[in-house]
Amino acid sequence: MILKLVMADIKITNMLKFYTLCLIANGPKHGYDLIKDLEEKFRKKISASHVYPFLELLRKNKLIKHDNIGKREKKVYHLTAEGKKFTNEMFDKFGDLIHISIEPRIATCPCGCKVYSGGYKEKINGKTMTFCCSHCAKMHGK
Ligand SMILES: [Zn+2]
């Protein structure tokens, strides 16, 4: 997956970068917490050397800032105004990708609800149909 974004010369070439930006977009983050969250998400050990160069690149492009908080000078990263624009654009593009990839798997209930996962299946006149819920199936079956 490569997302090329117009605003800055930053390419989101892997999920680690994507998720790093997502985490910072959700609110200010300590570098340490960021890596812990990434490790939890990817269920593997993540080296700071994989994360910090990307953070540094974001910082140089003025997409994120960091404040030093406390005696131990822990760095807290947060998005700048440009960073917010950048991540919104990223989410828009990523949203389009998700839409394209899941569209063929979406069923539409007769009530108009889009059903992606779960839903309720029932055979009506020999044809298996997908509904958003059993209530809609009952209504349709009448
Ligand atoms: Zn329905």
Describe the 3D structure.
This protein has about 140 residues and is of the alpha+beta class. It has five helices and nine strands; from the N terminus they run ββαβααββαββββα. It has helices spanning about 15-25, 30-40, 50-60, 80-100, 135-140, and strands at about 5, 10, 30, 65-70, 75-80, 105-110, 115, 120-125, 125-130. A three-stranded antiparallel β-sheet has the order 3-5-4. The chain has a two-stranded antiparallel sheet with strand order 1-2. Bound molecules: zinc ion.
Q: Would you summarize the structure shown here?
A:
The chain has five helices and nine strands.
Cα-atom radius of gyration: 21 Å
Mean pLDDT over the residues:
87
Q: Give me the side-by-side strand order of the main sheet.
A: 3-5-4
Q: Architecture of the largest domain, CATH level 2?
A: Orthogonal Bundle
Q: Give the overall shape.
A: elongated
The total beta strand count reads: 9
Portion of residues within helices:
40-55%
Assembly type: single chain
Give the distance, in angstroms, between the N- and C-terminal Cα atoms. Answer: 46 Å
The count of domains is 2
Could you give the order of the helices and strands? EEHEHHEEHEEEEH
The description of the largest β-sheet is: 3 strands, antiparallel
Strand content: 15-25%
CATH topology of the largest domain, which one?
Answer: Arc Repressor Mutant, subunit A
Output the number of helix runs.
5
Name the CATH homologous superfamily of the largest domain: Winged helix-like DNA-binding domain superfamily/Winged helix DNA-binding domain
Q: What are the low-pLDDT stretches, counting only 5+ consecutive residues below 50?
A: none
